[in-house]
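At your convenience, could you comment on the folded chain following this short note?
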Amino acid sequence: MSLIQRIVYAILKLLVHLVVWVFYHPIVVYPQKNTKLRQPTIIASNHPNTLMDGLNGALWVDQPVFFLAMSRLFNPPWVGKIFRFLFCIPLERKKDVDGRPVNNVDSFNQAYAHLSRGGHLFIAPDGAGELERNLLDLKSGAARIAIGAELRCDFELGIKILPLGYTYFGHDDQLGSPMLIKVGEPIELSDFATLAKQDEALAFRNLTVLLAKRMRDLLHNVEGAEEDETLRRLETLQQNEHPLPLVDLFERSKRTLLNVRNWALQKTSAHAKGLTTLDDYFHALEKNGLRDRSVWFHQQGSAHFFRRNWPLLLVIPIWFFAHVNHLFITQPIRLLIKKMNMHVGYKTTLELILGVILVPIVYFLQSLLVELLSSTANSWYYLLGIGISGAIASHWRNRVRDAFSWFKLSLMNRSQKAEILEKRKLASAFAQQLLTD
C-alpha cells in the first residue's frame, strides 16, 4: 500500500465511522480481543448487506484491509482503476462471466502477494447476500487463497482466517437496525501444513468445512424466512418486556430458537397454537399501524408510559424540526427505492450511498437559502441545527414512533383496543414459555 493509499484509507475510515454512527448505530463488536491483527489475516463473514459487509469487516480491526470484490464492479476499465486504488482485488464468479470458464489466476496471485507482504484481506465466502440469519454453503476461495499463499512460502507466513458473524436485530430494514458482530477464534493455517503438502484439494475442503463451522457458531442459523420471521417476532416481545444488551440478546435468541424447534417435535399442538397467536397479534399490529412496544406500555398503564418517556416532551419538537428539514433527502430516496423494488441487502446499500451523497448537497442548498433570506451567521446556525437535530432524531426515532403508536392505540375504541391487548397477552405468554421450558 502506497503512502497516498494509506492517507486515503485513514480518511475514508474516519468518514465510514461517521456514516456508520449515523445510519447503523448501535453496532456491537464482541469480543474485541481478536480484532488486533498481528499476522497476515483473511477476514471472512456472512453476507447479508452487500457494501456494508466489507466495510464492517475492515472498520473494527486495527490494520488496513483489502477487499476481494466481484469482478463486474471493475468494468469499464477506468472504474476498475478506481476500485484497485481503493484497495479492491477483482474476483470472478460464474454468474459474472457469461458462460465462459471462471479465471481467477491473476486475482489469486494478487491475493498471494498481498498476504506475503503481511497484508490483510476481506472475503464473504458464501458469495451472495442473504437477509435471513444463516450461512449459505461456502465457496472454497478463502481456503484456496490462504493455503495457496502459504504453500508458496513453505508455510512461513503465519496466515490466519478470522471468522465474523453479522446479525441484524429488529425490523427487516437493516438501515438503522441494531447490529451485533461476533468475532470468532482465528483459524491457524499452520494446522493444515502437513495435509496441504500431501493433498492440496483435501486441505481446501477440510479448511472450508472448519471455516463454515466456526462461522455458523457465530450466527442463529435459521432455516428459511418463515423461521427467521418467527424468531424476530419472539425477540420483539421478549426484548420489549425484558431488554438485554445485544450480546445477551443473541444468546437468548439462540435459546429461544432451539426451544421453538424442540416444541415443533415434542409439543406439536402447543407449537402450532403458539405460532397462530403470534400471527394473529402481529397481523393486528400491521393492520392497525401499531408497534409492539406501545401495546406493552398500554398493558403496564399510562403512568408507566409517561414515567419512561417524559424526555420525549423535549425530543419531539427537535424530531419534528429534523423531520421537516430532511424531507428533501428522505422522500426522494424512499420513492426511488420503492419504485426499484430491490432486494433488501442492495436496498440498504443504495439508501446509504444516496444518503451520503444527498446529505451534504441538501444541507448546502438549504443553508445557502437561509443566507439569502437572512445572514451568513444564521446560515451557519441553521446548518449546525439541522445536523444536531438530525443526529438526535436518528437516535430517538424508535422511541418517537412508539409514542405516536401509543397515542394511536389510546384513541381506538375500547373493544378494539381490548382485543389487541388480549392478542398480545397470548403471544407474550408463548414467548415467555419458550424461555422457561
